[in-house]
Amino acid sequence: MDSNVGEYGMARLGIFMVLVGLWRFSAACPASCTCSISRIACIDPGPGIEDFPILTLDDMEMDINITDIYIANQNRLFDINDNSLKYYSNLRNLTVINTRLTSISSQAFNNNTRLQYLNLRDNNLSTLSWRTFQNLNMTSFPLLSGNPLKCVCENLWIKLRLQEDVESPEKEDLKCIDERGRRKSISRISPPDCEAPAAEVSPSIVTKKEGSDVAAVCSATGSPAPEIMWNTENLFTIADTNPLDMESILTLSGLSPSDNGRVITCSVENIVGQSEAYLQLNILFRPTILELLEPLNLHHWCIPFTVTGNPKPELQWYHQDQKLHEQEYIKTEIHESLGSVHHGCLQLVNPTHIHNGQYTLVARNEYGEDSKVIDAHFLLPPNDYPDTESPYYPFTTDPPLPPIDDSVAVYVVVGIAGVALIGCVLMVIILKYGRNSKFGMKGSSSVISNDDDSASPLHHVSNGNNTPSSSEMGHDAVIIGMTKIPVIENLQYFRQSGSMLKSDTFVQHIKRHNIVLKRELGEGAFGKVFLAECYNLTPDQDKILVAVKTLKEASESGRADFHREAELLTNLQHEHIVTFYGVCVESDPLIMVFEYMKHGDLNKFLRSHGPDAVLMADGQHSLMVELTQSQMLHIAQQIAAGMVYLASQHFVHRDLATRNCLVGENLLVKIGDFGMSRDVYSTDYYRVGGHTMLPIRWMPPESIMYRRFTTESDVWSLGVVLWEIFTYGKQPWYQLSNNEVIECITQGRVLQRPRSCPKEVYDLMLGCWQREPYMRHHIKEIYSLLQSLAKASPVYLDILG
Ligand SMILES: *[C@@H]1O[C@H](CO)[C@@H](O)[C@H](O)[C@H]1NC(C)=O
Ligand SMILES: *[C@@H]1O[C@H](CO)[C@@H](O)[C@H](O)[C@H]1NC(C)=O
Ligand SMILES: *[C@@H]1O[C@H](CO)[C@@H](O)[C@H](O)[C@H]1NC(C)=O
Ligand SMILES: *[C@@H]1O[C@H](CO)[C@@H](O)[C@H](O)[C@H]1NC(C)=O
Ligand SMILES: *[C@@H]1O[C@H](CO)[C@@H](O)[C@H](O)[C@H]1NC(C)=O
């Protein structure tokens, strides 16, 4: 109870705060204005405003975020001062038109760096300073027409800026008024004694030894005479400036090495503008070793050091006073150079006790040298292990080991431990990856490659009871639609190999000029799929719509596969398998021509005709009618018919799912896809190894565990397809991760009965999901059961387009 009261109290407090905020803000909003959270508009001439409506920091904390200020018709507004816009740091658009605005301070927009659009038309501005606009990064120049601008030097910068600004609508016709009261185009003015400043520094680079003195002159041009400023802030060297008429002399006494590489700016400015020139310091000095530290075991062992010196010093190492000869296993590496400070390592790969001892680093250049010494201790000699664990030797706790031979054993122990560690890390990575893969597989990475390793469901020939061993497509695979489907030769269905390939197979060749591409339907792993018109394909029709699949890369073996697939496909004709019309091989790319199925893949179709359809509607479908039960049965029955045919041809599909079926007019459903499902529906697949993607949510236990794919495993998948149909295209086990799905299926759990699914149909699904493959319904049985169920509830096809 108490906590409820507390929450209620908090909620009330929240509302109270919001109300207070709005109230305070609207109190700040002047009578002639309307204020919202993002916009202030003051267009009412009476009573009018005298100053900008000023937000305070308190207002900013109340989520008020003004991006737009619009002020017009104000008779008492004369200036924009330093504070007017200070707190509107998100301001994008500022319009001040038809007011008495006479001056804008040079700091007015300092805090409005996001200002993009500035309209100052029809005010009383006679001069404007370039300084007002110097911090702004606007895409276009402020709009200024309708102001009594004077043709004076102070406004010359406007002409110069307009010349640079290609876009400005006022480029040509912005006018100013000369001393005799005549209006002139501002692009033509050239006031006397008025010139933009320029600067030159001499010398511009100084190369001198530390401690020396330097003098540099910054000379300026421009009119009126510009102000010259050297920026000597933060210099270590003592600096002195001596301004003269049109130049300024900088004197540096006793150059400090810390100023090496520094650039000193001389800036000159007058009312026309501003310019800069630079002096660069290159200070020569003897090396200093700033740091030399005890060895660290990073990826390799490293003795870290930091040296400085200009020119960059030569480095020489000594080990026990012997010159160290650097080679692949012991070498100096510079990791980072910041100016003249260099950070690096003496890197040692697998050092042993013989590398222990004193290391001396000597850094030299022509101005001198420096050296430092460090003691390094990598390993104890083999016969010298203490009883306690050595900090350098975490893997062994064994007491002293005998010398020589057994030092090898130490490495073995280390090695094994290392392997075990790497193994653990890999396991973690694999588990983690597997768990996340439901999300991680999205996108184009889900490409199936032809040279796949083990068990891609669509690319390998299975011998029926084992993992396919070869990565060759051989003669025993076929594609349905755009998907390669392997042929199975198991004991039950064994036939002479190549029996599918009648030697007289005649693949129809279609002339390229008979194919007119209309638009892209999608892009799959193998290439693009287009909607096209095909002429002279059938004797009774002049032209028909077809789906055209192009083969992306046509290597020699790719071409061979293409022709073999075309032959196999020509032999696979059934009313519930997508019709294959032929190929076009006149030139690249190679093309396969298929029947066009108007409504696309079945999964999408189901979703767009289910209870969630409104959420997914893309505005194109005017008929968002929910599928009826009898229509669902009609769909299921047609897929079953196609599967009966495939089984009779001794094909195992391996990837039967609604995403791989297509829907045409009058609820005609066929098996086949355009090879795009792995891209579009990548979360339906589980990646194993590098390339293999398994549709585990559609697979029976024996396929998951032993990669065994048979007509019986297709029956299991058909059961899942029924479930998909009766859930309007939900993903099976959508609430579970891939690893959880594998666990569920292999433990014998099955999908639950969908809410709108009749008991007879769910019984049929359960018949498909028997754990023992031989216990499952036969595909013919399923077909006739669905047929009789469908007859019992006739279909009213005319409901759907
Ligand atoms: C204010 O609005 C702008 C644009 O709508 C947005 O980019 C910015 O993050 C907002 N700032 C705050 C503090 O809400
Ligand atoms: C600029 O606006 C921010 C945010 O409103 C404010 O904190 C800051 O004080 C302003 N800076 C100046 C120079 O006024
Ligand atoms: C700023 O003004 C431009 C031009 O009038 C307009 O297109 C844009 O929508 C305005 N932006 C905002 C944030 O009001
Ligand atoms: C415009 O500003 C000038 C001073 O710069 C002033 O004399 C004149 O009265 C102003 N005009 C109007 C219409 O406010
Ligand atoms: C100015 O704006 C452009 C794009 O509008 C951007 O690329 C650039 O970084 C901006 N410069 C500064 C100094 O904000």
TrEMBL record:
Residues 1-28 form the signal peptide. It catalyses: L-tyrosyl-[protein] + ATP = O-phospho-L-tyrosyl-[protein] + ADP + H(+). Pfam families: I-set (PF07679), Ig_2 (PF13895), LRR_8 (PF13855), PK_Tyr_Ser-Thr (PF07714). One of its GO terms (cellular component) is plasma membrane. Residues 515-796 form the Protein kinase domain. Its EC number is 2.7.10.1. InterPro entries: Ig-like_dom (IPR007110), Ig-like_dom_sf (IPR036179), Ig-like_fold (IPR013783), Ig_I-set (IPR013098), Ig_sub (IPR003599), Kinase-like_dom_sf (IPR011009), Leu-rich_rpt (IPR001611), LRR_dom_sf (IPR032675). The active site is at 655 (proton acceptor). GO terms for molecular function: ATP binding; brain-derived neurotrophic factor binding; brain-derived neurotrophic factor receptor activity. ATP binds at residues 521-529, 549. GO terms for biological process: cell differentiation; cellular response to brain-derived neurotrophic factor stimulus; nervous system development; positive regulation of neuron projection development; positive regulation of phosphatidylinositol 3-kinase/protein kinase B signal transduction; trans-synaptic signaling by neuropeptide, modulating synaptic transmission. It is a single-pass type I membrane protein. Residues 462-471 have a biased composition (Polar residues). It is found in: Cell membrane; Endosome membrane. Residues 450-471 are annotated as: Disordered. Its main location: membrane. Residues 197-282 form the Ig-like domain. Belongs to the protein kinase superfamily. Tyr protein kinase family. Insulin receptor subfamily. PANTHER family: TYROSINE-PROTEIN KINASE RECEPTOR (PTHR24416). This is Tyrosine-protein kinase receptor. The lineage of its organism: Eukaryota, Metazoa, Chordata, Craniata, Vertebrata.
